[in-house]
């Protein structure tokens, strides 16, 4: 499996950046996980949007779905031009309902509510979805192709039960929304770089990729706060960062 960062910033993209979006490739299959602002223009470096096999939206906050609505246009157009014969399968929660009802679009999208589809397969990749601690329903994604496992934490607060989702994943992609200097007095629904590292160590992750970063953070600053708490291999996300596992 190959995991590529298409966007990693939040809550808005910095210059030339993008909010969360990741391309998961396994064999001939391509899965887009989250589709934030700026993600589609990054995706086009790797494949055409109509070549995707599936999309997973972890939750319906705009930093994770903004470009999904133009992806709908791309798929509809591809169908009209005969470049794609089937709708694009999208796994996403249906709430908040005011956004959930926008997930389908003409004949472009086959929406499968995560609430009813907690496990699925795309080619040889088994995907399972697990609730995190976040103000709206949000789902972490465990991708397993039988040789390696990637746990994508989506947006998650300190009460998230990572141990229930996976032990010793080959890669843990975890949010690091806060640094020590800006952790709010009562943080809710997000983690600091240090908390992400502690969580990764606790579940025995082999590699940790820190993401969901404020555009003004310097990568060295993020790494410095996480490093003392994690004994595996540590990475900080950037556009185009890519890692290949078995
Ligand atoms: Zn977010």
TrEMBL record:
SUPFAM superfamilies: Metallo-hydrolase/oxidoreductase. It comes from the Bacteria. Keywords: Zinc. It comes from Polycladomyces zharkentensis. InterPro entries: Metallo-B-lactamas, RibonucZ/Hydroxyglut_hydro. Residues 18-212 form the Metallo-beta-lactamase domain. The keyword Protease does not apply. The keyword Zinc applies. This is MBL fold metallo-hydrolase. Pfam families: Lactamase_B_2 (PF12706).
């Amino acid at each position: 499996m190959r995991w590529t960062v298409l966007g990693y910033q939040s809550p808005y993209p910095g210059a030339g950046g993008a909010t969360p979006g990741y391309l998961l490739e396994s064999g001939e299959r391509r899965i887009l996980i989250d589709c934030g602002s700026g993600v589609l223009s990054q995706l086009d470096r790797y494949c055409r949007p109509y070549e995707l096999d599936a999309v997973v939206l972890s939750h319906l906050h705009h930093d994770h779905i903004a470009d999904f609505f133009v992806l709908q246009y791309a798929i509809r157009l591809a169908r009209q031009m005969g470049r794609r014969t089937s709708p694009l399968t999208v796994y996403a929660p249906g709430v908040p309902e005011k956004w959930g009802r926008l997930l389908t679009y003409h004949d472009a999208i086959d929406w499968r509510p995560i609430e009813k589809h907690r496990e699925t397969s795309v080619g040889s990749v088994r995907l399972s979805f697990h609730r995190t601690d976040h103000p709206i329903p949000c789902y972490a994604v465990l991708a397993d192709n039988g040789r390696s496992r990637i746990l994508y934490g989506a947006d998650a607060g300190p009460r998230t039960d990572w141990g229930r989702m996976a032990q010793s994943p080959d890669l843990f992609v975890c949010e690091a929304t806060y640094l020590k200097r800006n952790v709010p007095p009562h943080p809710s629904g997000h983690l600091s770089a240090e908390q992400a590292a502690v969580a990764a160590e606790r579940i025995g992750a082999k590699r940790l990729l820190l993401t969901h970063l404020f555009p003004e953070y310097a990568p060295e600053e993020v790494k410095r706060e996480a490093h003392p708490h994690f004994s595996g291999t540590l990475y900080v996300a950037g556009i185009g960062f890519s890692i290949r596992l078995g």
